[in-house]
Specification:
The protein is an alpha+beta fold. It has three helices and six strands. It has a six-stranded mixed beta sheet.
């Protein structure tokens, strides 16, 4: 009888640890997704350049068309040299996931780049890392232009 009682206590304690870890992971996932939304809102309100500089990790990487990967200080220089006064860049995450550790994850979704006479829509992926201060910064960002009319595809029941 004592063995059964001891086994039940150990089982319940291990379940509690697992549930606690899942709650922590969900909190990390939610905060990372919010960082992506805040990143887009900053781009809309203050401009793409300021947003990217604010959310870029010091050694972050940009993957851009017709460029080798742009890393760290070169990424900062690349962003700083951009003139973002004639367009607006916003996006919305569609999906995200975070590692069990709660400090590394990704978001992806659709972006919209608008200028006075043109609207370009595409897809993006951002890989995020939670730094020592507990803030989410992106360590890799990439986008892909051209998704037709910009309408998001319907998700299957399984994807939702």
């Amino acid at each position: 009888m004592r063995f059964v009682l001891l086994a039940m206590v150990i089982f319940l304690a291990s379940c509690n640890l697992k549930f606690k870890k899942n709650e922590e992971r969900i909190r990390a996932l939610n905060s990372m997704q919010q960082a992506d939304v805040d990143f887009s809102n900053t781009s809309k309100e203050k401009g793409m350049r300021k947003a990217f500089l604010e959310f870029l990790e010091d050694d972050g990487v940009l993957l851009r068309p017709s460029h080798y990967p742009i890393v760290g200080a070169d990424a900062i220089e690349f962003i700083s040299s951009m003139n973002d006064s004639s367009f607006s860049l916003t996006w919305r995450p569609s999906r995200a996931d975070v590692a069990q550790s709660g400090d590394l994850g990704y978001t992806y979704g659709m972006y919209t780049l608008k200028s006075a006479d043109t609207t370009i829509r595409g897809t993006y992926v951002t890989i995020w890392h939670k730094n020592k201060e507990g803030k989410w910064k992106f360590v890799l960002d990439s986008g892909n232009e051209g998704v037709g009319d910009g309408e998001e595809p319907e998700h299957t029941e399984e994807e939702q």
